[in-house]
């Protein structure tokens, strides 16, 4: 299979700036653009609350611009395509999110994101911006074995962390409590992704890697990083039957647990396919006596037009369910 | 000549910028095999920004040029290697402050300080299949040389050898880590960039100063 | 460009049933499944209100299952992939939507949808179900020239009609008023689509039509029906500059008008690209002194994994703006 | 034999079902060129349902078989042609009610009534590049014949010729309408199905009754 190479963009070097400008023009009631690269809530949250920022690479839309808004994040610091932003821009974003209650920098674990956030934290200290902390988040079971969880990559399952953390930071909890909540959500979340296709880089205009039309890869990362290896492409039920057991074993999720489920579209999978996949996942979870509290199916963190999906589970308690159900109003994450 | 001033330093940075720009697509291809295929684009964008920012400097002192390069790489490159290249240059700024001309020995000190910072920042050692595999031998060769001519030549050779040595390695840092055994046979793009930087410096030196 | 042919489904003959089962399992608080093919609101609307039904082909997800819910449609009668449901099933759906205030059958204009709805209406009359009416909707300017609007196809721009009509039918207006509102929204809506790629049929497992990697087609229909012809693929700004003028001329939209804008992803276009496209469209509308009231960018009516988009505009007055802003809670259409 | 009973009618429908199933992929390909590529799948699904439903009938009278076929096509086929094929069969039910055996003349009446309904329903005339281009000449040929053997044979020939005539036409109904001139050269799938139906009936007749 050849990926589509022609993209509807203009000059690649203007891509991120133009895309953010378009996003903020379309959703001006939700988000506004500052310094070309900071996507901020149109209405800042109340003074004294903990600010939430994330600095990460672009190219995964709607992540993370779509998560800016009430009940969600305060500032997205947008890097180039698939590249974390530099530390000085991150410091600007941190300043912009500061409402007096401290700022939590969320890092979806990738080398670049972590290194730049660390540098930004050091700069903050040097510049006397106190009350800033960082939390490193990961969920992808394919990227390091059980027992070495902190080496794992951050992928689509952080969806759950973002939502709960956003709701939490609308309340009166302090920075330490926010960080603890993020860690709790992270430690109860596991994801596994697969893909049927490659995708083209909008920067180079070339296909990122080769994949045969009848192949699939289980465990693929958000930037096309390899997973557990290639195999023959399977049908929907077979694919779920292959992916769900390792996911359940990893935490482990057990009979009696209550979970949130995400099926994240990495790009060009159809919702039609995702609904068929969900049907099997729901049946298998019911068989395992694991109760589904709520589910989401959609394209929340994409890898360009890659045809694949991630299955993510988050074990929830009463606090987490309440945070999950709290209202949210991002352009691409709405909870009534 | 065995000490260089700000003019020569600016020219060396420009030479590096030209070299990585010329190799942009090749570097992208190396990164496509091991990572996400953007290394060439990122490093040439950042070096181009460094050259531009250096030209805009009111007082282009040695340390200002070094700092400007550091900041451009750190802020305009993005991703893992932006942070790491930035860390490399920023560490040397202190040792160049208030000097008009720098000897090969002083320069060696700045490079060694940068190497230390890169290792600390990236939690990477020689053998991890990262830019450290080119940078560590290059800095060692530079330190051991008696003058600039010998230093650039030895560093360029060592960096290239180091970059080539990454082919046989499994990655322990960066995106390539997840490839496991499948990384074997592929040369690390960051290490290749380091080799290109030292080779560009050496070529410029041979043409202009040797 | 070759389209992805392997789909994550099971047996094609079970596809629609399985997909609807998965959808309703995931969103059981919003929709429930009756008779395998009727997707209904989980909580029926109040007695006495006008019921809204649509019968159309599947394969365009989230349309129309994603539009079932409060402030939106009451029943989606799901046909096979790209094929309208038969009349007897439609009659069942009409009965299910009947809350005593009459039922309006919405037809997105395609031969099969119209023919089956007509048959269903005749059956209703024969069976003594009164107070049922039908409205035929269309928006695609590429499918028939100005002056022959009723021959045009229904495409993504009906988005505006669905939303306003759904809000209207939460109120106390009667069947005739609902139909009049639908016609008013339709008559102020225009769409034009384009595509860079073909897609594969999940039924036949074959690519639906051939397209070269550097080609694009302007005016393509929701099932891959041809439009105004092929041409070399352009960049984002050039594409908007080509599509917007005929759209503006058709109504015509004029200086001083206020509009809603939709950029609908036909499948595998990225949001990244759509944001870049939107930026240009917004700039050009501003130049023409046409005011954008609200915009939506996303995959609302898809053609499997086709890489293309539709640009739709709807001229609004105060009533339409209020209906637009009214709350809605479909799985894939939420307004707070 | 110049009158058929319910057994023969059931066998004729089965023969049609087998023929369209055998040509499913070819019909899909015709529809891929002019429409959305599903015609073969839809018509064979619906005919298979008709055969199944006929087998399940408690009292398989002529009119019950005809009605069951109509309902299966109307409800299980979906899309434009389901409604139209359904309309075709449903119209003939009335003229078959309360008869045990049907002559070729009575059958011609049922077919003619169906054709009228198709034209009304689809707002299509001969020359619009639809199934009407095959159905209209087939029904005329059937009406003009003196017995079943001649009727099936003449109808099959006329339907095939009609289907082939659609190649030169621009479509004025159905999805192919939007192709304009680009529809020329492609044969209409719905008309092709009509030809297959009459050919299957004629072949069955020749083998079993002639
Ligand atoms: N932890 C690390 N320590 C040292 N060098 C690293 C580390 N991680 C990555 N690198 C270097 O960065 C290079 C990749 O750079 P680049 O492609 O620009 O960044 P990214 O991986 O964020 O896209 C690798 O080839 C490697 O040499
Ligand atoms: N208005 C009409 N009148 C008569 N026949 C029609 C009409 N519209 C479509 N058809 C027939 O239906 C056929 C297409 O059938 P099919 O592919 O099953 O339906 P759809 O177009 O809904 O996918 C066409 O080849 C044509 O013969
Ligand atoms: Mg990168
Ligand atoms: Mg890279
Ligand atoms: Mg169809
Ligand atoms: Mg068809």
How is this fold's topology laid out?
The complex is a heterotetramer, with two copies of chain A (336 residues) and two copies of chain B (210 residues).
Chain A: H1 15-26, E1 31-34, E2 38-41, E3 51-58, E4 69-70, E5 75-81, H2 87-97, E6 103-108, H3 111-126, E7 132-137, H4 158-168, H5 175-187, E8 189-195, E9 215-218, E10 230-232, H6 236-250, E11 258-265, H7 271-287, E12 291-298, E13 308-315, H8 318-325, E14 328-330, E15 333-335
Parallel strand pairs in A: 3-5, 3-6, 6-7, 11-12
Antiparallel strand pairs in A: 1-2, 2-5, 4-14, 8-9, 8-13, 9-10, 11-13, 14-15
Chain B: E1 3-4, H1 6-22, H2 24-34, H3 39-55, H4 62-76, H5 79-96, E2 102-103, H6 104-122, H7 132-144, H8 148-165, H9 189-208
Antiparallel strand pairs in B: 1-2
Descriptive tags:
A: 336 residues, alpha/beta, Rossmann fold, Hypothetical Protein Tm841, Chain: A,domain 3, 2 domains, six-stranded mixed sheet, 15 strands, B: 210 residues, mainly alpha, two-stranded antiparallel sheet, 2 strands, binds adenosine-5'-diphosphate, binds magnesium ion
Would you mind describing this structure in some detail?
The complex is a heterotetramer, with 2 copies of chain A (336 residues) and 2 copies of chain B (210 residues). With 336 residues, chain A is α/β, with parallel strands linked by helices. Chain A has 8 helices and 15 strands. In chain A, the strands form 3 sheets. Chain A has a 6-stranded mixed sheet, sandwiched between helices. Chain A folds into 2 domains: 12-187, Rossmann fold (3-Layer(aba) Sandwich); 189-325, Hypothetical Protein Tm841, Chain: A,domain 3 (2-Layer Sandwich), CATH 3.30.1180.20. Chain A is globular. Helix content of chain A is 31%, strand content 24%. Chain B is mainly alpha-helical. Chain B has a single domain, classed as DhaL domain (Serine Threonine Protein Phosphatase 5, Tetratricopeptide repeat, Alpha Horseshoe), CATH 1.25.40.340. Chain B has helices spanning 6-22, 24-34, 39-55, 62-76, 79-96, 104-122, 132-144, 148-165, 189-208, and strands at 3-4, 102-103. Chain B has a two-stranded antiparallel ribbon. In chain B, helix 3 (39-55) packs antiparallel against helix 4 and helix 4 (62-76) packs antiparallel against helix 5. The longest helix of chain B is centred in the last third of the chain and has 20 residues, at 189-208. Chain B is globular. The N and C termini of chain B lie close together (8 Å). At the A-C interface, helix 1, helix 6, helix 7 and strand 12 of A face helix 1, helix 6, helix 7 and strand 12 of C. The site of one magnesium ion has 6 residues of chain D, from loops.
